[in-house]
Amino acid sequence: MIAASLGMAAVTISLGRWQLRRLAGRKASNAVFLAAQAESPIHLPQDLSPGIAIDSGRRIVARGTFDVARQLLLRGRVQNDAPGLEVVTPLVLQGDSTVLWVVRGFVGSPDAATPPDSIPAPGSGEVTVTGVAFAIPRAADSGRPLVHNGVSTWQRLDQRVTHARATGSLDVDLLLAGDTTGPGKLATIPLPEISNGPHLSYAIQWFGMAFAVLLFPVIILWRERRAATTAP
User: Fold this and answer.
1) Rounded to an integer, what distance in angstroms lies between the CA atom of residue 35 and that of residue 52?
2) pLDDT in tens, 120-153
3) The model scores a pTM over 0.85
4) How far is CA 120 from CA 11, 103, 117, 153, 183, in A?
């Protein structure tokens, strides 16, 4: 029993320490994001340079033309308690072949997977958009594409998809900020809350479980010894 308790305690302590490491990583990421937000905005395409790296949180002002034919739909979204999809449209920067993917807004969908019959277009001609940059991940599942009723959607953006759709894509997308509606009068997506997440509470729970697991055999042994000493 003691060996089993020690083994279980070791596992739960390890999980608690893992949550603390995740908390430290989350705090570090938040610090980088907030520091980037404090920087002056990047103006595109003026500030483009070879090998430019744009940090998550950096404010961007970009001018270009939307290419609706190559836009992507991200499924499984909820906004104001309503299910739907996010519309992400490539913006071809002015006088350049570089592409900035813009999270243009939210459209409702009963199952959060089937797009409406029509999605408002952003309009033709050059536009200027402002917002906050977020790094586009690169994962083995390529954003989990799904074809439903003949329409492709993704669970999230992925660099494999954006680069395949539009050569010259930047490795960040732009989440519009400021207006209540974006190009095409879609409802804009609120900026995500910057928080430390639930990692500390999870760590406390794991450490509490470790304490309980270690305390249990102590109580059992104490009761057995007490019963032995009080037996006639």
Assistant:
1) 18
2) 888 788 999 999 999 999 999 999 999 988 889 9
3) no
4) 52, 14, 10, 17, 9
- Output the 3-class SS for the chain: CHHHHHHHHHHHHHHHHHHHHHHHHHHHHHHHHHHHHHCCCEEECCCCCCCCCCCCCCEEEEEEEECHHHCEEEEEEEECCEEEEEEEEEEEECCCCCEEEEEEEEEECCCCCCCCCCCCCCCCCCEEEEEEEEECCCCCCCCCCEEECCEEEECCCCHHHHHHHCCCEEEEEEEECCCCECCCCCECCCCCCCCCCCHHHHHHHHHHHHHHHHHHHHHHHHHHHHHHHHCC
